[in-house]
Specification:
The chain has 201 residues and is mainly α. It is built from ten helices and no strands. It has helices at 3-36, 43-50, 54-57, 64-89, 95-109, 111-122, 126-147, 154-175, 178-181, 186-197. The longest helix has 34 residues, at 3-36.
Length: 201
């Protein structure tokens, strides 16, 4: 084997090990977040959970905000897949309703997406922000596809952002118990969103 091939194999192994360790850290962060809440996540607690020295995490995540944004970006990917799967299993008339219900369920269960805005405001993790923004755009495109209305116009794009904001706010109300306290069921609100934003509405 040539020296070049050996060097390429080493580089490939290092990259795979780096990705595997990064994933192990993210998995540990999820466990800590599930136990203690994502807001109370610290690099030290994640390092302990993952079995690393705290300083070792800085080779993967510069700070807590970067770690939270990485978790939220992964969750946005999961959200996009769930919406696509739900819409694909539904008929044309119920694609948006099915996707919105799947999105709402995940938004209610996923605290990292609720903590992401604070990390974005801090602005201390530009690479993590780019990844988060890319995944957010992909989730918006998926949501747009479920409406049956092409997002070619500025108005249609604004409608998709408005729909996403409604789902996010609805998740906050449902998660906190405020929606039920107001006397509303999530299904009723989702039906109204479907009527307002889908092509058949």
């Amino acid at each position: 084997m040539s020296e070049t091939a050996v060097a390429q194999n080493r580089a490939r192994r290092r990259a795979q090990e780096h990705l595997a360790t990064r994933q192990a850290i993210l998995d540990a962060a999820r466990r800590v977040g599930a136990r203690d809440g994502a807001r109370h996540l610290s690099l030290r607690s994640v390092a302990t959970e993952a079995g690393f020295a705290p300083a070792a995490l800085y080779g993967y995540f510069a700070n807590k905000d970067e770690l939270l944004l990485a978790l939220a970006a992964d969750d946005l990917g999961t959200l996009s897949r769930a919406m696509r799967d739900a819409a694909g299993a539904a008929g044309a008339e119920t694609r948006l309703a099915a996707a919105a219900a799947a999105a709402l369920k995940l938004l209610e269960e996923t605290e990292t997406l609720a903590t992401a805005p604070a990390a974005l405001i801090a602005g201390e993790a530009p690479e993590a922000e780019r990844l988060f923004n890319g995944r957010m755009i992909a989730a918006l495109r998926t949501l747009s596809d479920t409406t049956g209305v092409p997002a070619g116009s500025r108005t249609a794009q604004i409608d998709v952002v408005l729909l996403a904001a409604c789902l996010t706010g609805l998740a906050v109300l449902a998660r906190s118990g405020r929606l039920a306290a107001l006397g509303f069921a999530a299904d009723d609100v989702l039906a109204r969103l479907d009527a307002r934003f889908s092509s058949h509405g």
